[in-house]
Design a protein that fits this description.
With 83 residues, this protein is an alpha+beta fold. Helix content is 25%, strand content 19%. It has one helix and four strands. The chain has one helix spanning 39-59, and strands at residues 7-9, 13-17, 20-24, 34-36. The chain has a two-stranded antiparallel sheet with strand order 1-4. The longest helix is centred in the middle third of the chain and has 21 residues, at 39-59. The chain is flat.
Length: 83
């Protein structure tokens, strides 16, 4: 996400395969696109990013984040499951 431009770029997807969560390329070229976001969404995503940074510092060596730039993760960096 680029907060200065107010856009989100879809570059990857989280997919469950055989009970395991994998980061994969979008299914189609059209899925890999830039989407303009309302200011309210940009604010919420910036707050989420700040929370992730704090979570990462608190988790220390227990951080499981993959460095893939996921928007929504648990307190230890795992991808958050859709509910």
């Amino acid at each position: 996400m680029d907060p200065h431009e107010g856009v989100l770029t879809g570059r990857q997807a989280l997919q469950r395969v055989g009970g395991e969560q994998l980061i994969v390329a979008p299914k189609t070229l059209r899925s890999a696109r830039r989407v303009a976001l309302p200011a309210k969404c940009v604010t919420a995503l910036c707050a989420q990013r700040a929370q992730q940074k704090a979570d990462r510092q608190a988790a220390g060596a227990n951080w499981k984040g993959t460095g893939q730039g996921l928007v929504s993760t648990t307190k230890n960096g795992n991808p958050r499951q859709a509910g």
